[in-house]
């Protein structure tokens, strides 16, 4: 699954990202939301920037992460498995409402020999931002009863690196496929695959990440040596 991530781009950088290489049109840039900020620990039910196509127009918007509570569990519905997106209840969104989620990295928890669950940051070796593949749709806010658009993150089988941390990874879309992911008439099933491991890296971070409300740069600092003898990031075979 993918349950936490970072986005460290400025609003101006996000606007540039949303153009997908096309020149800017005068007066076409969306205004920066008053509450916008860079995030080191973005959690489900919060709002985050997303690039999508709506009414035949590509746009940068801020949407809620999560489709509400799942029917079989009280957990928030935040992920969709790549193996199931062509079937209900995802099929219509996969066909018509795909989106790109700009991120700077994401977190997963690795089970260590002692039983400890060690949080890890995963991202690009050069620390460049990237985009996750997602789905969006209109949902009813359970608290207010109002309609709002919300997104999910698609997950897929892990690559060789991420498999050492978790048995799933978020779907990462290569920049060369951004436009096709958003606009292809036929759902791009061939893009539902793990991102190349040799472009990525992972390391253990502090357990400060375990608190959803904690959102500071030191979350990204490498973890200190573990008191229980478990190896930390430098000793991981990643």
Essential attributes:
single chain; 238 residues; mainly beta; hypothetical protein yedk fold; 5-stranded antiparallel sheet; 5-stranded mixed β-barrel; 8% helix; 33% strand; disordered C terminus
Ends apart, CA distance between termini: 19 Å
Let me know the average pLDDT: 90
Strand content: 25-35%
Structural class: mainly beta
Strand neighbour order, sheet with most strands = 2-1-7-8-13
- How helical, in percent, are the residues? under 10%
CATH class: Alpha Beta
Number of beta strands: 13
| Low-confidence residue ranges | 233-238
Radius of gyration: 18 Å
The main β sheet shows up as: 5 strands, antiparallel
Total number of domains: 1
User: Which H/E pattern describes the elements?
Assistant: EHEEEEHEEEEEEEHE
The CATH topology label is hypothetical protein yedk fold
What would you call the shape?
Answer: globular
Describe this structure in words.
The chain has 238 residues and is mainly β. The chain has one domain (5-235): SOS response associated peptidase-like (hypothetical protein yedk fold, Alpha-Beta Complex). It has helices at 11-18, 91-96, 178-183; strands at residues 5-7, 39-42, 47-54, 57-65, 79-81, 98-103, 105-111, 117-124, 130-140, 147-156, 169-170, 172-173, 200-204. The longest helix has 8 residues, at 11-18.
Please specify the SSE layout and strand pairing.
Elements: E1 5-7, H1 11-18, E2 39-42, E3 47-54, E4 57-65, E5 79-81, H2 91-96, E6 98-103, E7 105-111, E8 117-124, E9 130-140, E10 147-156, E11 169-170, E12 172-173, H3 178-183, E13 200-204
Parallel strand pairs: 4-10, 5-10
Antiparallel strand pairs: 1-2, 1-7, 3-4, 3-6, 6-9, 7-8, 8-13, 9-10, 9-12, 10-11
